[in-house]
Amino acid sequence: QEQLVESGGGLVQAGGSLRLSCTASDRTLSSAFMGWFRQASGKEREFVAVISRFGRSTYYADSVKGRFTVSRDIAKNMVYLQMNSLKPEDTAVYYCAAGPRYSNPSALPAEESRYDYWGQGTQVAVSS
Hints:
A hairpin with a 4-residue loop joins strand 7 and strand 8. 0% of the residues lie in helices and 45% in strands. The protein has strands spanning 4-7, 10-13, 18-24, 34-39, 46-51, 58-60, 68-73, 78-83, 92-98, 117-118, 122-127. The model has no long low-confidence stretch (mean pLDDT 96). The chain contains no helices and eleven strands. The strands form two sheets. Strands 2, 4, 5, 6, 9, 10 and 11 form a seven-stranded mixed beta sheet that branches. The protein has a four-stranded antiparallel beta sheet with strand order 1-3-8-7, with no helix packed on it. It is an all-beta fold.
């Protein structure tokens, strides 16, 4: 059974915007920190952004800081990634990931090993 499902990917021109969504089928995952990662073709998966368990803190990769915003709606069990000023180098499969249930409220990890659940990914393509 899939725990996390991403949506909202697509093709957009450089400078455009997209909003990715991630829904968790298990409501207890609302107690976890939630992250976004991406993997471009031929490259390793990399950290993009993370939001803390209660949504009070966020942390971003330098490459997306100031352009991307991660948010969550705990009541709806949803996490979002608003992506603005997109660049061709943002082209990748974007993955939603969840940490362990009842995460430390201050945790904002960038390491993949800290995440227990992963979605299947959604493709984002940015044309120049």
